[in-house]
Amino acid sequence: MAFARTIDGDIDPAKLGAVDAHEHLIRTGGGEILVDGEDMRLIDVDKAITEARSYQVSAREFLDVDGTIVDMCPIDCGRDVEKLRAISAAVPGLNIIVTTGFQKSHMYQEESTHWISRYSVDQIAELVIADIEVGVDVNDYSGPFVERSAAKAGVIKIATSYGVMTDLERKLIEACAAASVETGCPINTHTQHGTLALDQVKLLTSYGVKPEKIAVGHVQRNPDPYELGKVTETGAYLMLDGTYRLKYLPDSSRVQLLRSLTDAGYGSQLLLGTDSGKKSYQKVYGAATGVDYDMTVFGPRLLHEGFSETEVRGYYVDNAREFFTFAA
């Protein structure tokens, strides 16, 4: 039977509803905070509950379905599965998908001595598989003891640096690919400013990952329909996130990219996410935007810009349902 794996167990993928395909509710520590500062630290469960509840309410109002938030914090990057379980319990009807896998290599401080450098590909793959099939480690593999939660991961993250794929990133990608092939778990990627999108797909598929179980992330940072068309031609998905990031591009760029790719026949391979992974991106910390931005602002804008209800529901509901279903 087809299923998607949420923090509270496996469900019929049709029950995912409106999916924020790349989001952050909790980040307790890790390299991203060391690199990018305290703005990245999201430890307040009550504030996260407020943001998650806003998303659930707005999903019901906008698309008349429950919501799903994919929390994309991977291994040893401040992931806290018990805090996420508390959020899920406090927001009835909302699904949360937990992530396993890895960020780009420089997010792991002293990477030469980190266990990801010292463990073999098979050993790393074994840990990722255990996150998916047994339960996420409540200590986030920060070691040395492992204590499995009842909650299992439902998506794998892989990442590459800006314009370069380091040796360590290649190693982690090989391990994550092995875990995906073994479990059927989909892979949602991080590209740095949209670079190496096609390279990620080629490497993952060379290890046997099905292209339709790969979603290449942050591609709106490189809004080039020709280049991104090469990715969708493989059968992989594109994930456009980061709404209202005017320091990079206006939202009109994201609208135009969606229109170009949809008109080219790739509308069923597009996912959307808000990626509000900083205090300065969340209303509960005083920001102008929040986790609900796509449901309250960007989604309605698409309708106002002439996208059909079928197209918009496809981006948020139908496409995500297909992608987050585990492969047979």
Features of this protein?
alpha/beta; TIM Barrel; eight-stranded parallel β-sheet; two-stranded antiparallel sheet
Could you characterize what this model shows?
There is one protein chain. The chain has 328 residues and is α/β, with parallel strands linked by helices. It has one domain: Alpha-Beta Barrel (TIM Barrel), CATH 3.20.20.140. The protein is built from 11 helices and 10 strands. Helix 5 packs across helix 6 (167-183).
Write a concise synopsis of the structure shown.
With 328 residues, the chain is α/β, with parallel strands linked by helices. The chain has helices at 31-36, 45-63, 81-90, 115-118, 121-133, 167-183, 197-206, 225-233, 251-266, 293-304, 309-323, and strands at residues 4-6, 9-11, 18-23, 67-71, 95-101, 155-159, 187-190, 214-217, 237-240, 270-272. The protein has one domain (4-323): TIM Barrel, CATH 3.20.20.140.
* Strand count: 10
What strand line-up does the widest sheet have?
A: 3-4-5-6-7-8-9-10
Please name the CATH topology: TIM Barrel
Indicate the percent of residues in helices. 25-40%
Proportion of beta-strand residues: 5-15%
Number of domains: 1
Radius of gyration: 18 Å
Instruction: Estimate the mean pLDDT confidence.
Output: 97
Write the layout of secondary structure elements.
Blueprint: E1 4-6, E2 9-11, E3 18-23, H1 31-36, H2 45-63, E4 67-71, H3 81-90, E5 95-101, H4 115-118, H5 121-133, E6 155-159, H6 167-183, E7 187-190, H7 197-206, E8 214-217, H8 225-233, E9 237-240, H9 251-266, E10 270-272, H10 293-304, H11 309-323
Parallel strand pairs: 3-4, 4-5, 5-6, 6-7, 7-8, 8-9, 9-10
Antiparallel strand pairs: 1-2
Helix pairs in contact: 2-3, 2-10, 5-6, 8-9
